[in-house]
Fold this protein.
Amino acid sequence: MTLIKPEDTWLLWAFLAGWAAISIYLEQRFKWAAKISGAVIALLGALILANLNIIPTEAPVYDAVWGYVIPLAIPLLLFQANLRKIWNESGRLLLLFLISSVGTVVGVYLAFIFLSGSIPFLDKIGAMMTGSYIGGGVNFAALSAKFATPSEMVSATVVADNLMMALYFFVLMAIPAIPFFRKKFHTPHIDEVESNTGKGGETLAASYWKSKEISLKDIAFAFGSAFTIVAVSFKIAEIFQAKIPSGENASELMNILNAIFGDKYLMLTTVTIIVVTLFGKFFERLRGTQEFGTFLIYLFFVVIGVPASIPQLIENAPLLLLFVFIIVFINMVVTFGVGKLFKFNLEEMILASNANIGGPTTAAAMAIAKGWTRLIVPIMLVGTLGYIIGNYLGTFMGFLLKGML
């Protein structure tokens, strides 16, 4: 009994796309919205309307987002992930990013041991957060679909995740102004721009998502390539899943191989990276792919807020906040501890940890906001690697944590 019915397809698409657009606008226009994050605004709007019985909690439109929108977003966001370019241009930051990724994995493992008896489906959530805190929201979406995490737990995790990210970004933004860090770490980029006050009034999101020239050809090749890669990847995964034995009668090795090669999201990631690395110049010339992919991910954030029950959020989110806090804290300790040991710059540590927890776009936006111009492109390139390894490590952690229950 809702105002908008499940069969009101166009009204629901209008709501999803419209509210995603409003969330992005608010994040880029107002500082209070930037602190909350557009993802949380997108989720909360859907949550409120669903609990007020204005929109339905289940509808074919939502299934279309899971089945078509998310798979399309993955290659669009990976089109800049040229492995050769990442290694050649960002070797130093790449090493620190990988070290920070180890901190995420260790944090997930320790947090799971501490809270596994208190939070349901924590093996699935642990897999999602491994991917999310190495590659960002695109891996969160892929892994939540892969492990079929209950929607109410996905929504609660997103709330805890984004609240934790917002708090952590405040910490990272404040670190350069803390005397302790200025004395203990090298800060060449901070020293270079210390006298600059920057352009006041612009949010991080607005500073990053500047207008750019995009041609019809860019749009055509971006979506044409994305549709083709998704179709080929899913077909390959389908063939492997049919050919490789699985189930109770198959060996453990065959079940593992079936889970890896038959996983359409892992296959999609792998095929995209191979194609992008082989045809790097073609994809580098495409403009707007990050914007297209990010908007599609915002549709995902709206959809996962729809089935959320407010009482369940109140019940589950506090413990989930503790879970993600442990992960972020361990990531920070490992990143800054090992970074100090190997004499990395403070700016590099901040951006590497940011790229893990929030993804390449937030790290690049922070570099832009801080005026660390020479680090913007390297951290963006390195951060895109998280889209790749985050999916694999998230899958690995999902199976590992399931075996520990």
